[in-house]
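ok trying again, last paste got cut off:
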Amino acid sequence: MKDDKFTINVQIGGFRLPLSIPRKDEELYRKAEKIVVQILEQYQRQYSQRPTEEILTLVAFRIAVIVSKQ
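nice, full thing came through this time. structure:
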């Protein structure tokens, strides 16, 4: 049987990202979106003169560090 997939849209840094995900993982993806947006907003305040793409790189790196610690 095929996975029960559907499309959600996440909004991160002004980018709309349609993602096809397993329905059972929707809560996980929504939680991840909130975490990324929270870190992004923190870095946007801290580095307001930097371009969004650079700040998103910092966000990705911070999350990689968090995951590496676990």
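cool. DSSP finds two helices and two strands in the chain. The CA atoms of residues 38 and 56 lie 12 Å apart.
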